[in-house]
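Letters spell out the chain; backbone shape is given numerically. Take this protein:
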Amino acid sequence: MNNISLILADDHQLVRRGLRALLMAEPDFSVVGEGANGSEIADLVERLQPDVLIVDMMMPGLNGAEVTRQITQRSPRTRVIILSMYSNEAYILAALRNGAMGYVLKTVSPEVLCEAVRTVMAGQRYLCPPLTEKAIEAYIQKAETATLDMYETLTPREREVLQLAVEGHNNTQIGERLAISPRTVESHREKIMQKLGLRSYPELIRYALKRGILPMEE
């Protein structure tokens, strides 16, 4: 039996502990690492090269969809499963568009997550119930044909600054997190606003909610 190596990414320690216990109970699963910050996960995955990354959609630093985008570039062999509280279209499209192989709701049974891991390891996409097979095809088709929005023009650094800004961090705090100067942060923020065609911080927040960067009410 081939062993499937996994990394867990969730900012809640109790959630990670529960997931680890669940997955390690499977004879063919092995959890080789875990993390609580989206900005650090891509480095960990690149270093450990796991078979599967299970990542929370709403991670601090970088959200799960953006982590997925980086993983597909830095560790192409790693399949990504998004674990999420949200079943609305914005999040699912963001996950699929960025290369996720699976999308699993946190409300499902443990058996569903294990099924998702084995399904993506077999090279197939997996959306958990109540997302049906018909919905999978519709979501994938829409993700592949969706018009490119201006978010796609942002650099990886600008996406990091955007995420931290909408999380409420000021320029000094963002600079400390990213090891850049507050002035450089401000320059990135100006470019972000220009590229996205936004004029104020409230507009940026509304954009982040619509784009699935910040959590929205169901």
Remarks:
- The first strand starts at residue 4 and ends at 9.
- The longest helix spans residues 182-196.
- The domain at 150-211 is CATH 1.10.10.10 (Arc Repressor Mutant, subunit A).
